[in-house]
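User: My collaborator sent over this chain with a note saying "see what the structure looks like." That's all I know about it. Can you take a look?
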Amino acid sequence: MYEQTLYKIVEPIKKTTLTRLNRGRKWKYGYDKDHDIVVLSKNGVIGDIYEIQGLKIALPKPTNVFKHESNKWYKQEYPKELKRIKNIFDWRDYPEEQKDKWYDYIDEEFKRRDEGFWFTNKGVPTYITGTHYMYLQWSKIDVGAPDFREANRLFFIFWEACKADKRCYGMCYLKNRRSGFSFMSSAETVNLATISSDSRYGILSKSGADAKKMFTDKVVPISLNYPFFFKPIQDGMDRPKSELAYRVPASKFTRKKIQTNEQLEEIIGLDTTIDWKNTGDNSYDGEKLNLLVHDESGKWERPDNILNNWRVTKTCLRLGSRIVGKCMMGSTSNALDKGGDNFKKLYNDSDVTRRNRNGQTKSGLYSLFIPMEWNYEGFIDEYGLPVFDSRSDDERHGPDGELIDVGVIDHWENEAEGLKEDQDALNEFYRQFPRTEEHAFRDETKNSIFNLIKIYEQIDFNEASRYNAHVTTGSFSWFNGIKDTKVVFNPDPTGRFKVSWVPPAKLQNRQIIKNGIKYPGNDHVGAFGCDSYDISGTVDGRGSKGALHGLTKFSMEDAPSSTFFLEYIARPQTAEMFFEDVLMALVFYGMPLLAENNKPRLLYYLRRRGYRGYSMNRPDKSWKKLSTAEKEVGGIPNSSEDIKQAHAAAIEMYINNHVGHISDGEYGTMYFNDTLLDWSKFDINRRTKYDASISSGLAIMACNRNLYAPNPKVERTPVNLKISKYDNKGYTSQSVSYTHLTLPTNREV
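Assistant: Without extra context I'll predict from the sequence alone. Here is the result:
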């Protein structure tokens, strides 16, 4: 059975502390710095703590759990008597004795809107936020009332945490097509706008026409469908095209009013507006916003740039250092050169596990990804839960009562299988309905210099067969902490190394000493490639990462053939830490290293430690042709165009021979998806961006150094051989003459 969860229940707080603070109702809505959680409860008491994509969110404790006879979400009918009341003015004219019986009902709806709602779903007490309640109970979408979905429940919980967290500018939601984001964000816009005064709400999309359509087809109908007690006084047309204004309409002085001295009734309005803007880098520049909805933000194509726009609009959501507004951003992704690369960067910069000293992510947003199998129309049952598997113990029916007899996983895999012959079509399918973040950012094949079909075949194989389970994360260390002895490998989830093969004990730490110099003892088994760096820190705190890759050759030893067995892509605090990591890997595997010598600190580090014999010389030149520096530390330059071409050709050769589908049912053994993805994006004219490609390519060249050996010029020197002729008559042979033959010999010059 397929198993996956979008959240896990964690216990970051001691039970005694939790009980004590609950008893005193001490929890406050918002970010709790002492316990590093975001509290959603508004009554001072918390229950389960969810962790969703790295963010810890404390839910309210179950109270007043509503249970319908259907044992699932049930949209309660709006009383017919109240339906006749269209606005606050009609309510004023309503008989007072009739009003009394509806006050409790109205108060309860406001409470649910504010605090959220508990109901029983398939026997389980289930919490939805106030925003989610307003979406389900009071929002009208294209199919009528929205269905309850577990994926949307977690989406709204995450969004509520973004609103509650004072460090956060909002969310960056990576979604699948038809997930309902446009309707959910429209519902939230109306929900917030109708309870806020002197506020501004804005909408952007991949084009101005799309933003307008979202406004007219989603926002306005949702607003119109609200009950009178949630609906503020609206100015202008019932169905406006550009701005929805919740303010008091201008009241005209008439001649009659002047003559009779009739007083104008003072009516208080919200003075709040919702509008949309044309797409552009400077849209909403200089305006103060309480909410900005960014729909289809992964589809902004040049010259429009979502990154540039976010830098502008981010300032619209704050006053000084205080965040006063939020952004609700969501989209599928275009191909990388059609706006997807900018959205991908924004999404990666929104990782809640990577924060600056102010506690904020680089973008200020919080990223959320929900795999397609959780939110794919036609495969959600009546309880809002996804039907993953075709084989199930019980029958599952959708909200419409239709039997769901095929699981979403099988359906998705069948569709993907049918597109295998058209890689670009398959990649578009992955982007529209991603099961992983990597799927969501698949690129078009035409944008790669390598065989992208084979690369993606391998990635899909790795994920489908869960070969990543064969990759162990860990670190190396000197035995007993004594340097230059033996190295040991320690599995560690926080380690910087990923390995798929650990050599048997007889091959570990194998070393040869010649003339007092240490040489690797497994040169015949494999080799390493490395892209190093020289400077520990950079001005912006980023800098390129150091990369190290290990690759085996064909050998008679107990080792896999032509297999990448080690991947290291990291930037430790100091360059010396990186150098020591590299050295320990070399010693443990007993293999040589080919590294670029334009950043020579690593090579000098190896020489100083006594490991010059582990540093390979460039294979394209003989010893006599090496420069003084090359003879001293080894390595290969990256400046030569011939080397660049040879390096790219080496990766191409390996991909064609050892990656993806190789023969019937056989796939390559390249298990490191980060390196595969780096290959997919590699640009030979911008090599410095692709640390993994540089490193892995050098490893391939090191294992195939004979292909790059120079062709020596030779001279031929004649050698005279005196050959005797014999008379073989009689019982003995007699030499009768001599013949001179000239044979050439070769000598390298």
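A starting point for your reply to your collaborator: The chain has 22 helices and 29 strands.
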